Amino acid sequence: MASANIANEKLEALRKREATLKAAIAAELVRQQKKKEKEDARLCSIIGAALIQNARNHPDFELMLKSVLQSSTSLTDSERKLLRAKGWL
User: Cα(77)–Cα(47) distance, rounded to whole angstroms?
Assistant: First the structure.
């Protein structure tokens, strides 16, 4: 009977350890996803700033960029409204 209790205790300890590891893995996946999203947002900001600056200096590029924005199907209504208000559509 004592060896059965020891075996059950060992299994329980291993299950707790497994649960702890699963939680740690899930937390790490969330951390990595948030980091990726933050990097993607920063990348968009950097590229966007470069495109705007280039459009200010080159009228032909500005027209091309406006054309791309106008034909974009991924813009929401609120994004289109903002772009219109800022003179990009």
Answer: 22
Q: For residue 52, count other CB atoms closer than 10 A to its CB.
A: 14
Domain count along the chain: 2
pTM here? 0.68
**What angle is formed at CA 65 by the lines to CA 87 and CA 55, rounded to 5 degrees?**
75
Asked if 69 and 89 count as a contact pair (C-beta separation under 8 A), the reply is yes
Q: Which domain holds residue 51?
A: 1-57
pLDDT of 16-73, one tens digit each? Answer: 999 999 999 999 999 999 999 999 999 999 999 999 999 999 999 999 999 999 999 9
